[in-house]
Specification:
By secondary structure, the protein is α+β, with helices and mostly antiparallel strands. It has one domain (2-118): D-amino Acid Aminotransferase, Chain A, domain 1 (2-Layer Sandwich), CATH 3.30.470. The chain has three helices and nine strands, in the order βαββββββααββ. The strands form four sheets. A three-stranded antiparallel sheet has the order 1-4-5, covered by helices on one side.
Length: 119
């Protein structure tokens, strides 16, 4: 399960835990899961995303409302999810255990980055 939210990472980290699964959830964030196979199944749950955290001048961040377009769209495309799923499988194989990936998507270029891994 991967949460996705507009803006900086703090918007996603402000979530809670799903009592049914014990998995972390992000308040208002989109939720995604990818089930591998010959025809991968991608499950998407649209979140409300009422706010986002953005850079503020001269340093720091601030929380601002998301636009109606940001609220109405998903943060990740299918290609993004497949790339993150591939990275997740690669990390699991490399470390020989299930890993959690922290990731970021550049708001200007759309490029994905793995920012941290942990178990």
């Amino acid at each position: 399960m991967a949460p996705g939210s507009a803006g900086r990472r703090q918007a996603t980290e402000a979530g809670t835990f799903d009592p049914a699964t014990g998995e972390p959830t992000a308040a208002g964030a989109d939720q995604y899961s990818v089930h591998p196979g010959a025809r991968p199944l991608i499950v998407k749950h649209h979140g409300a995303k009422p706010t986002k955290v953005v850079y503020a001048d001269p340093r720091g961040t601030q929380t601002v409302p998301t636009t109606p377009d940001e609220q109405g769209s998903l943060v990740l495309a299918d290609d993004d999810l497949q790339e993150l799923a591939w990275w997740s499988v690669a990390a699991d194989k490399h470390f020989r255990r299930p890993m959690t990936l922290e990731w970021a998507k550049d708001g200007r270029t759309g490029e994905l980055f793995v920012t941290a891994t942990s178990w």
